[in-house]
Design goal:
CATH class: Alpha Beta
Largest sheet: 11 strands, mixed
Order of helices and strands: EEEHEHEEEEHEHEHEHHEEEHHHE
Radius of gyration: 19 Å
Strand content: 15-25%
Length: 316
């Protein structure tokens, strides 16, 4: 690198307001209303922002994690943060972090049972807010991902996004339902709904790319610079000032789709941190997300496998 070249900052803050311990069970098929026997299972720290942080850290980013974490069962999170080398700025709160159940069938279908999580109070919220804006003094990129715990309103979350954006920060926002809808008005720098979440927001069914684009354009008119729509096995569509770009991954052998969307967000963030072109970023992020479905758990164990997938991602 020459003296005139500026090394890109790889610093990012990953915010998880409602983390979870994911209890994942694998079984041949799930039948509601009967006894189902799980073939194998695991319990590991998660939450959308935590998943994004893990992937980014393994790619080489300098990640700080924050949010609200129950004191009673924090050990697994502390061990993970130390293992992946992220800076832990989570605010500890009374109670236990929730456990979410994910049942993965042999064909890759996932059924989620998500519990509500801890209830936070005004003191907890004030501590988190102080932490968030202290981090804003030294960071420009923030990922805010996942649902909200009891005690934090959708309006409060949107206010934080708006304040960060007003300070010139770039907020990548990935949530759903009311939190997603409210957050849009804060004009985050990037949003990443999947096609189902987009349809839920629009209150209509979306059957074609044209219908997805029509609804996604409504997000762009709100002032959101980057609208990224994940389509599962069909790929990813990204709209920014350059227009629309679509990426389609090769056909993958699906083991589990858990964390694939979070991995896509991490890939988009990594491309941004690296100052890659739009095509480079979308190709890599799509490959990274496709790689995610071939494994149990979230992470990047084999970057060479990701690169091999990347070579077969089709852009249009």
């Amino acid at each position: 690198m020459s003296e005139t070249e500026i090394k890109p900052s790889l610093k990012v803050v990953a915010v998880t307001l409602n983390p979870a311990l994911d209890l994942t069970g694998h079984l041949s098929s799930l039948t509601a209303g009967t006894v189902n026997v799980v073939d194998s299972g695991s319990l590991h720290p998660a939450g959308k922002g935590v998943n994004v942080a893990k992937v980014l850290a393994e790619l080489g980013a300098e990640v700080t994690v924050t949010g609200l974490l129950g004191r009673e069962n924090q050990d697994g999170f502390c061990q993970l943060f130390e293992q992946i080398g992220v800076i832990d700025k989570f605010v500890r709160v009374s109670g236990a972090t929730r456990i979410n159940v994910k049942l993965v069938e042999q064909d890759g279908r996932v059924s989620d049972i998500n519990f509500p999580g801890v209830e936070v109070n005004a003191t907890d919220i004030a501590k988190f807010e102080a932490t968030l804006f202290e981090l804003a003094n030294s960071h420009d990129v923030f990922v805010i991902a996942g649902s909200l715990p009891r005690g934090i309103s959708t309006q409060q979350c949107a206010k934080w996004i708006e304040q960060l954006q007003q300070q010139g920060k770039q907020v990548l926002f990935d949530s759903s339902k009311a939190a997603f809808a409210e957050g849009l008005d804060a004009k985050p720098w990037l949003v990443k709904p999947n096609d189902e979440e987009l349809a839920d927001w629009a209150k209509c069914e979306l059957h074609s790319d044209e219908e997805i684009i029509e609804v996604a354009e409504q997000l762009a008119t709100k002032g959101i610079e980057n609208v990224v729509v994940s389509l599962g096995a069909k790929g990813v569509m990204w709209r920014n000032h350059e227009g629309w770009l679509r990426a389609e991954p090769p056909k993958m052998t699906v083991v589990s789709t858990v964390g694939a969307g979070d991995t896509l967000v991490a890939g988009m963030c990594w491309g941004h941190l690296q100052h890659w072109t739009k095509s480079e970023t979308l190709r890599f992020a799509t490959a990274l997300s496709a790689y995610a479905v071939t494994q149990v758990g979230v992470g990047v164990d084999d970057i060479n496998a990701v690169k091999a997938i990347e070579e077969n991602v089709q852009l249009s």
